[in-house]
Amino acid sequence: MKFKKLGNTDLDVSLICLGTMTWGTQNSEKEAFEQMDYSIDQGVNFFDTAELYSVPPTAESYGKTEVMIGNWFEKRKNRDKIILASKIAGPGCDWIRGGKNSFNEKGIGEAIEGSLKRLKTDYIDLYQLHWPERSTNTFGRREYTINKNEKEWNDFESVLQTLDKFIKSGKIRYIGISNETPYGLSKYLEISKNKNLPRMMSVQNPYSLVNRTYEIGMSEISIREKCGLLVYYPLASGALSGKYRGGQMPKNARMTLFKGWERMINPLAMKAYDEYYKLAKENNITMVQLAQAFVNSRPFVTSNIIGATTMDQLKENIGSIEIKLTGEMLDEINFTLSEPVDINHDRIKGDEELYYKVINRKVLAMLTQPEEIVEPMNTPMNET
């Protein structure tokens, strides 16, 4: 296993992080235990969860995942072996603090105490704000406008002051954000520096071969400020495994069972998956290995949060740590993103075979522009 520093902390987290959001809906406690046991045996020391889980989120599924993790800690007596991340939910879910903005001392306190009880621990290593209270472009939404009916939200400084109290109490060690924008991340970093308040150590946002928006405004901040990305949806909710190719809808797959992820398998996206399938096959690896190895290789990524509903999926995801993409493969992924294809291009140099190969890949490059693939998302309910 490979490890990276979590922000500027003293914590070394595994490059592969175990995601947990299906435990309690698609996975039983027995299966969750098996996943945790295997992961720790493979060197994974970083688990990510949330009070919201399992998903799809409902009042009935709320907190189930944390309960399973807590039971595992109690049985295995190994809490000190795991760097544990959890999250407080933002507004929108009526069954969680009335669905209101609650990033205040009362709301954050209730959320932390609830998570600690379910997790059967007295501290959380990384405590994250699951999505912002303010009206902003999260979950794939575009065309930003300020909501005139926006409810009053807790400002950046007051949130940091509140979190500082819980850090000093020992109940949480470090803090992070999730589903954030360059504006939000920059404000938190600026205020923490100027006001001597705790610093955000990570950002948990979606990133994959078909959603590379993080590279535009966030990646530079992550690298320069040592506030790395914790990737979720590295397989685009499983679509980059190829299991939906050709119109297939596997029996127990997420998009077969639940609504809300249809944008991941729209016609444009499906063409991109077909091209990635070809690229993987040409290089004797699977689509999963291609997609996960790409994410693992990004310099702004601190950890890649994998999710699995079967042990075979888990093993392949963790095993991706051993896959290294060649420069040629990365070139094929990136080459025609913004350039016209010319046979005399200095990277083709008149090579007809390469030229036609690139022409055939042009659709891939065009379709990996996420704004062409991802439909706007107006609710946090199916995102994590």
Question: What do these coordinates show?
Answer:
By secondary structure, the chain is of the alpha/beta class. Helix content is 38%, strand content 13%. It contains 14 helices and ten strands. The chain has helices at residues 29-41, 64-76, 105-119, 156-168, 182-194, 214-217, 219-225, 254-257, 267-282, 287-296, 311-319, 327-334, 352-367, 370-373; strands spanning 3-5, 12-14, 16-19, 46-48, 83-88, 124-129, 172-178, 200-206, 228-232, 301-306. Strand 3, helix 1 and strand 4 (46-48) form a beta-alpha-beta unit. 45% of the residues are buried.
Task: Summarize the topology.
Blueprint: E1 3-5, E2 12-14, E3 16-19, H1 29-41, E4 46-48, H2 64-76, E5 83-88, H3 105-119, E6 124-129, H4 156-168, E7 172-178, H5 182-194, E8 200-206, H6 214-217, H7 219-225, E9 228-232, H8 254-257, H9 267-282, H10 287-296, E10 301-306, H11 311-319, H12 327-334, H13 352-367, H14 370-373
Parallel strand pairs: 3-4, 3-10, 4-5, 5-6, 6-7, 7-8, 8-9, 9-10
Antiparallel strand pairs: 1-2
Helix pairs in contact: 1-11, 2-3, 9-13
